[in-house]
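Progress narrative, Year 2. Work on Rod shape-determining protein RodA from SAR86 cluster bacterium SAR86B advanced from sequence curation to structure prediction during this period.
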Amino acid sequence: MTKSKKTKTNTISKAAKKLSLLSLFLVSSCADMIAEAIVTAPLELTMELAYQAGKSLTSDGAPNTPVEPDDPFCSKDIFFIAPVDGLVTNNQDVYFEFGEYNISINPAGELPPKNEHSCYVSGHHHLIINEAYEPTSNGSIPFKENVHHFGGGQKTATISLSPGKYTLQLVLGDYTHTPIKIGMLEDSFITSKKIFIEVTE
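Result:
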């Protein structure tokens, strides 16, 4: 073999080696990219599906569906106008007045009027005395002592209370007397803040 042919052969051999190394590099890079795509795609897909469904995750990983958080109409509350928290009175006939915020008060036993707003809530007040009832999802608010139903849609009442200390709370129930929830949490029922009064002799 002549010198020129040897030189040409060596050049081709070196080029082939470089091409082989380049091919290995490209294959390796592609494999890494494919592996990364396989690993990351499910997470991105899950996040995208969650976003499209309008859902988010709470801090403990539970699904949470936000309901128009920027709409002031979605904020709900019930509260005592009277008596005031901390009242001490010697009048055993105690006057009660209830208030509500962004809630339609309607009688029990009647279907609420139609309203397409996703945050619309309709119900009536229940007065709970001395924690005789705690709202749960298991059934209707019971008819029993110290659980007063205002199924006619009443917002005022005068109730005779014997001398003693009392814990008072309002619970909103629907037309079937079932406590109304506004969130996914177990305790997200529409209730008032508990207040405390005392009736003296």
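The longest strand covers residues 164-173. The chain is about 25% helix and 25% strand.
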